[in-house]
Write a structure and sequence with these properties.
Helices cover about 10% and strands about 35% of the residues. It is mainly beta. The strands form 5 sheets. Strands 1-8-7-3-5 form a 5-stranded mixed β-sheet. A 3-stranded antiparallel β-sheet has the order 2-6-4. Strand 12 and strand 13 form a beta hairpin. The chain is rod-shaped.
């Protein structure tokens, strides 16, 4: 029994080292798809040695995967929170509509020869920032047009494409080149919004010459 427990713990640690930077905690964004979780997996094996890598479970073991209450996605395409299966040492999770702002626990239990051991991973589902909304100001005879992020949030980081502009207090955008088209995204620590619609600043209006 001691030997088996040692085996799954070592394999699980190998999983976290390979997939999650040797941590037993992960952050995902709301709606994340195709997240793969594995145990008893050796990434050093070649394809010829390991096949597709999903069938490297310990011979004779049965794995039971559970995701804690509140999970609203799918495991291997099925809308279940508990999955049983022989040699099922790898699962693919689509987090779907699982509420953000909450931490969930993935538990895998390995059973073999009447003995069992478990490993857990905590996963925090993070909110994705709202797509930036741009409000343009038309040019005048004394100044070029300007743009403002109307749903600006000082807690977020804004990235412009192409690079150059920046955003200040109240969402005012500075550093734009007149006539150049930009998009912008908003990011928190873990997730990034979709890109805004393209926007640009129009040139200052031309003032007619003084009549003579």
């Amino acid at each position: 029994m001691k030997k088996q427990v040692k085996g799954i713990v070592a394999a699980a640690l190998l999983l976290f080292s390979f997939s999650l930077g040797a941590r037993a905690q992960q952050n995902v964004c709301y709606g994340a798809t195709n997240k793969i979780y594995k145990v008893d997996y050796d990434p050093t094996l070649s394809t010829a040695e390991s096949g597709d890598g999903a069938s490297q479970g310990s011979s004779g073991s049965v794995y039971t995967w559970t995701i804690s209450t509140g999970f609203a996605g799918t495991i291997n395409g099925s809308t279940v929170s508990t999955l049983n299966g022989s040699q099922l040492n790898s699962i693919t999770v689509d987090w779907g509509t699982t509420p953000s702002g909450t931490t969930y626990t993935i538990t895998v239990k390995e059973e073999r020869g009447g003995c069992s051991s478990t490993k857990t991973l905590t996963v925090t589902v993070n909110a994705i920032p709202s797509t930036p909304t741009i409000t343009p100001t038309a040019p005048t005879c004394s100044s070029a047009g300007s743009s403002t992020i109307s749903n600006y949030d000082a807690a977020l980081t804004y990235m412009f494409t192409p690079a150059g502009p920046s955003v200040g207090t109240g969402g005012a955008i500075t550093g734009m080149t007149v006539g150049t088209s930009y998009t912008v995204t908003a990011s928190n620590t873990n997730c990034t919004s979709a890109s805004s619609a393209s926007f640009s600043n129009a040139a200052q209006l031309t003032t007619p010459s003084t009549p003579t």
